[in-house]
Amino acid sequence: MLLTLLNRKEKLKFLDLVMHMVSVDGKPTEIEQRLLNMMLAEVGDGIVQEYQFALSKDLDETIQYFCEASPTVRHIVYLNLVKVTMVDDFYNTTEHFFLEGLREKFMINDQKKKQLMQIVYMERDLREKAKRVVNH
Fold first, then answer.
1. Strands (E), 6-133
2. Residue 20 — pLDDT band, cuts 50, 70, 90?
3. Residue 99: CA count within 13 A, CB half-sphere
4. What is the pTM of this model?
5. CB within 8 Å of 100: residues ≥ 6 apart
């Protein structure tokens, strides 16, 4: 969501960060993998061809890159990371702690966190409503 607003380097760094997040608890689930594929489509073919699908060795460098980015970029990155953690109904504490640590480093306050999470919930609700409408 809104990943097209990121520049080339931000997109590559985002992909690196999201790969680290889904890997903190082992291999990505099938649902996480599907969401990653949708995010890859959103960042564009040029980025996908350039990205190496392996975890970078320096996660701290990637995090620091976003710590120095604009608030808008940090919010877009955090929003999409929240979306990944909420893609299935399984609550994963490892991902939660990873995400919470990033939130603090990105200097995202509780109010902004709540707003970003509401966007993810609204998107999920809209998707479920659409499914109900087309199925009846």
1. none
2. confident
3. 26
4. 0.86
5. none
